[in-house]
Prior knowledge:
- The protein is of the alpha+beta class.
- Strands 3-4-5-7-6 form a five-stranded antiparallel sheet, with helices on both faces. It has a three-stranded antiparallel sheet with strand order 8-9-10, with helices on one face. It has a two-stranded antiparallel ribbon with strand order 1-2.
- α1 packs across α5 (about 75-90), α2 crosses α3 (about 35-40) and α8 runs antiparallel to α9.
- It folds into two domains: about 1-195 and about 335-380, Phosphorylase Kinase, domain 1 (2-Layer Sandwich); about 200-305, Transferase(Phosphotransferase) domain 1 (Transferase(Phosphotransferase), domain 1).
- The chain is elongated.
- It contains twelve helices and ten strands.
- Residues about 135-150, about 305-315 and about 315-380 have low confidence and may be disordered.
- A hairpin with a 3-residue loop joins β3 and β4 (about 105-115).
- The chain has helices at about 1-10, 15-25, 35-40, 45-60, 75-90, 135-145, 155-175, 210-225, 260-280, 285-305, 350-355, 365-380; strands at about 60-65, 70-75, 95-100, 105-115, 125-130, 180-185, 190-195, 200, 235-240, 245.
- The chain binds adenosine-5'-diphosphate and magnesium ion.
- Magnesium ion (MG) binds near residues 103, 235, 236 and 248.
Amino acid sequence: MIDEALRVFNELDSRDFRILTGIETGMKYFEWVPIEEINKYTRIPFEKLEYKLKKLVRNKLVVRTTQPYEGFQIYFEAYDALALNAFVKRKSISAIGDEIGVGKESVIYEAILPPELAIGEPVPVVIKFHREGRTSFKQIKRVRDHLGDREHFSWIYAARLAAQREYGIMTTLYPEVSMPKPFDHNRHAIVMELAKGSLLSKTRLLDPQWYLDEILKQIKITYSLGVIHADLSEYNVFVSEEGVQLIDWPQYITPEHPHADEILERDVSNILTHFFRKYGIKRELDETIREIKSQAGKNAEDRNEGGESRSGKGTVEELDLEETPEEGFEGDVFQEEDFEAQDFEAEEFEAEDFGAEKINIEDLDARDFKKAASKKDASGKG
Ligand SMILES: Nc1ncnc2c1ncn2[C@@H]1O[C@H](COP(=O)(O)OP(=O)(O)O)[C@@H](O)[C@H]1O
Ligand SMILES: [Mg+2]
């Protein structure tokens, strides 16, 4: 798990990150990235490179094969470390805490966002590391022979695409739809605000009618913006005194989806069923759906009449799943230049900057994490 990545995070230097990025990049073209390619990418002399690779293998960030030739792949943990490093460098987080949630396809860590210009309060955030496409290495080895072209790269691709989709839709819908504020995205990971309150599934509400209406209101607003959540249930709704927040957005669809009606019905039905089972509240599904749809149409009209143009943020077009992510996963033929400087994200490797922003291993412990947070609060400078 990511604990492994966190444990060794402090020991990684800028060259380690360069090696990991080199292998990550190389995996677009090679199932197993040959050391020559890593050398070309990192420009680290062979002897040093071999020594460093050995250490990365020992720390379970990198896996080495000797068959059919010597080559390297990164593990999910290395991918975690690369995303974490990017966030730290961009000052999107200053400390990371405990694991606070594990979903079907993700693992969530508490973290701290430093205040802007070092004034104000540090913001409690979470990092959601996507885990789509995760296969155990054993499995990968077993099916290796059957893997087509680039399928060796599929776990990185799947997890990254999911994070991209989720971050994209969150930044589009926020703040109209109530959800944790999205802050940053890198690779398969998202930094977002800590959700308020607790999961609906784990809460006993004193005023369930009010909360049900609040959730339906959010579904309506979402629909009026041209989006259906598509994985809505008591497990993806946070409730607090302030209201509700919807989380977990990567599988959203638009009303143009061939099964949009069914999927919207399933979302609403999940919520109605929860409120019926737990609180005995009865609501007609068809009636509720009609209301969501009519209200949605009206909302759209209102917005148009109000002349409130939502250009660039308005209704959502379905992302093309085949579309290449921003760093360009495709490129049919491997070209040597691809490994050269342009792929190299200088921002992510400058060793000099890195030291100061390094995450302290003490911060990784939950209690120390809280201590660190309150210390920052107290000192008021974050
Ligand atoms: N912003 C957040 N604040 C607090 N907890 C969160 C947040 N996002 C996710 N979680 C926790 O992590 C769990 C998994 O996250 P979720 O986004 O639902 O991913 P999955 O697709 O794996 O279900 C949630 O059920 C919740 O307990
Ligand atoms: Mg979930």
